[in-house]
Amino acid sequence: MPLLGRAAMLLSSDIVHDAIDEHDDWHTHEHLPERLSIPGFLRGSRWVAVQGAPRYLVIYEVEQIDTLASADYLRRLNSPSPWTAKMMPSYRGMTRDLCSVTRSSGLGMGGSCLLVRFKPAHGTDASLRRWLCEEARPALASKPGLGSAHLLEGAASAEMTNGQRIRGADAGVDCALVVTGYDRDRLTEVAASELLVEQLPRRGASELTAAVYHLAYSVSASESGAFDQAARSPA
Questions:
Q1: Each residue's pLDDT tens digit, 62-116
Q2: Every domain of the chain and the residues it spans
Q3: Burial environment of residue 15 by CB neighbours within 10 A (0 to 12, 13 to 18, 19 or more)
Q4: Which helix (H) or strand (E) holds 73?
Q5: CB 148 within 8 A of CB 109
Q6: pTM of the shown model
Q7: CB of 212 within 8 A of CB of 114?
Q8: How many CA atoms lie within 13 A of 191 on its CB side?
Q9: Fewer C-beta within 10 Å: the chain N or C terminus?
């Protein structure tokens, strides 16, 4: 399985323009290492949109869905650092999905990513999942320019925490298809292909959104080590 755990958290958002530089500094040097120091967090990656919106996609790969409701994780959310508290009001339109990894195909993680979020229409869950798992997803992972494809499904609701209260309540989406590769143009073609424009809606997917991202930064738990919260502070 190319994703490192059995569950993942997907976060999508915009940031007010004047805060982008500080956000990326904070996210790279404090926030990602802090999150990856929590037991069960395996890898975190930040992606920036090259086609579509919102600007940012963050993926946290975790051991299991219970990791995202653990006491260690919730303690961090309810006790944000001074720098985190400073950055939270700059977020706009946050979507946070706590997902199980239903199925993965391919190996590794490419430098470009297509994220498709959708909601199955009533009564289509099983047939849509079967088609994605058995036909669409494996075919995507083997296409030239691509390398891996993952179906993720919402498995838990995000608890309201002090961090959320600062930036505002987060939205959520039922399902996500994440496709990574080494050729951004190929991913852009997939985003405009019959798969998304015709086949997914015909098979019961609704409320579709799609965006293409490039990888800006990634940290794994094995790299991050113990996080020293006093090492960095707000500018």
A1: 999 999 999 999 999 999 999 999 999 999 999 999 999 999 999 999 999 999 9
A2: 7-224
A3: buried
A4: helix 71-78
A5: yes
A6: 0.88
A7: yes
A8: 26
A9: C
